[in-house]
Amino acid sequence: MTTEWLTDLLNGIGLAISKREVVRLLTTDLEMFEQEDHAVLEAGLVSSPYLTVDDTGARHARRPGVTTQIGGERFCVFRTSRSKSRLNFLTLLRAGREDYVVNEATLDYLRRQPIEVP
């Protein structure tokens, strides 16, 4: 939803507010929301029996951007970035952690893959 549309909506229901004030409300003092968003992603990744992911691209200010949705049966988060690379996706899915786990399930999966070595 654009800020213009949101401003029109709020003015239409009787709230006298400028576009500048809408932008200020949407972009300042976001630390509490960022912490909650991060906690939702971490809890969802740990507790969900499955994950769904999807992404969509769009241009903003003549630059490409990608919004990635990560969710499960009880949570959903969105991340916007400039890259649609696999590395970016894995970084989003790791929720800021830099550790990687190679356990027996991972090794079993890798062993089942048909790998050709030149």
Q: What coarse outline follows from CA principal-axis ratios?
A: elongated
**Helix proportion of residues, in percent?**
40-55%
Helix/strand class = alpha+beta
- Beta strand count: 3
Mean pLDDT: 88
Our estimate of the beta-strand percent is: 15-25%
Task: Outline the biggest β-sheet.
Answer: 3 strands, antiparallel
Using only CA atoms, what is the Rg? 20 Å
Give a written overview of the molecule.
With 118 residues, the chain is α+β, with helices and mostly antiparallel strands. It has five helices and three strands. Strand 2 (63-71) and strand 3 form a beta hairpin. The model has no long low-confidence stretch (mean pLDDT 88). The protein has a three-stranded antiparallel beta sheet with strand order 1-2-3. It has a domain at 48-112. The termini are far apart.
List keywords for this structure.
alpha+beta, 3 strands, single chain, elongated, 20% strand, 45% helix, 5 helices, 118 residues, 3-stranded antiparallel β-sheet
What's the quick description here?
This protein is α+β, with helices and mostly antiparallel strands and 118 residues long. It has a domain at 48-112. It has 5 helices and 3 strands.
Q: What's the helix and strand layout?
A:
Layout: H1 3-12, H2 19-27, H3 31-47, E1 52-60, E2 63-71, E3 76-81, H4 86-93, H5 104-112
Antiparallel strand pairs: 1-2, 2-3
